[in-house]
Amino acid sequence: MSNFPKDFLWGGAVAANQCEGAYKTDGKGMSLVDILPDAHHGRWDALMHPKEAEKTTYDFYPSHESIDFYETYEEDLELMAEMNFKVFRTSISWPRIFPNGDDLEPNEEGLKFYDRLFKKCRDLGMELLVTINHFDTPLALFDKYNGWENRKLVDLYLKYCEVLFKRYKGIVKYWITFNEINMLLHIPFLGAGMDVSGLDENDALQKKYQAAHHQLVASAKAVKMAHTIDPDCQVGCMLAAGEVYPNTPNPKDVWAAVESNREGYFFIDVQARGYYPNYALSFFDQNNIKLEMESGDLEALKDTVDFVSFSYYSSRLISADPEVSAETGAGNVFNNLKNPYLKTSSYGWQTDGLGLRITMNNIWDRYQKPLFVVENGMGEKDVLTDDHKVHDDYRIEYLKENIVEMDKAIEDGVICLGYTSWGCIDLISAGTGEMAKRYGYIYVDRDNDGNGTNKRYRKDSFDWYKQVIKNNGI
Q1: CATH of domain 9-470
Q2: Taking 60 as the threshold, does the pLDDT of residue 461 lie above it?
Q3: Residues with Cβ within 8 Å of residue 6, at least 6 apart in sequence
Q4: Which one of 45, 192, 376, 388 is separated from 181 by 20 to 30 angstroms, measured CA to CA?
Q5: Exactly one of 20, 65, 375, 434 is catalytic; which is it?
């Protein structure tokens, strides 16, 4: 038996900046990712030193063409519909609508693209879950204001939101204000369009939390605006989640895990509860962080989200012992201790399906708001056979383990709206800029250097996920 409700929203997720390409087509402005190279040319260093990256000319920019979703979206969406998708999560590229971020009028050609994309989704029977800012602040706002460090971005973002809410009233039912908002603390360039390199730790912390305040105010005001313009839509926040476990029962390790979990929950505490939690105020005081606020900011925060969405790939492990912590390994943005009880992928990621159940229960207990699992998946180096097959049993195993535990979380009493696994079609990795790290059910014939036919092929996981949706999780 399945615990998934009959109206559970099964689907998949992509992001404009990782799949659309067409980086200057139809009046689009430059996005943050458009200056970033691939992993071979030092993508991570570019992310940490974006002003230097902007001055550098690289041999290859992955985002410029990506998988050409801007041109292939109809074919791609039809493949997703073949898998029985009930919902499609994508994002709108802010610089495709306002090329410089502060333009007087929106770019009509950019809006027309999303008109076509969204109509195709609806014609195929898919609901839309749309992220308003998915690591896609216009590059011009980075150059002019250092991104979200500047208060001006609140009004510019809200102007952008107003265009979207009015244009897509009755079309987009679910909105997310910011993708993985807590990533602002770890990758400030992608998360907030800002550069803090060259600053000492305290100054960098001050700027990041000031930017966080601006985003939190903008998010709350966007929630209020959306409900005013379209009372039938729902607006959510999004956390890069994954419960942090203590390495040992040592109380110091347990406390380190509490503090690490709070670092991420801080953002959602504000968005879901409507105020700054006491532990955050204490942290600001201890670190001499003084937030500049305008009159009415704290009142504005009281407009809370309708649902809490999150990404989950694995749990994390932490130690308070500096010698033990020095042994951390790969794990996307978060470096983790290796958990001896978990399996490890070729990219160093560990598989923890039960961790999803734990994470869902903790988020539900904390906020009592409906959840939406909007990213989950396994990045691996898939092999396309001579007969154009991809035998990705490892992905099926990972997804099955996670979906089984999601089912159990719902049985536990957690209310969950839906599940959109990440990268349902292969796309460019945000962290490394490569194609080789694939997540999709649909293989895209394109390599790390942009070579290939760009043709689409169904993987084994395609047929498997099609049956999962058809049988509502059974």
Answers
A1: 3.20.20.80
A2: yes
A3: 472
A4: 45
A5: 375
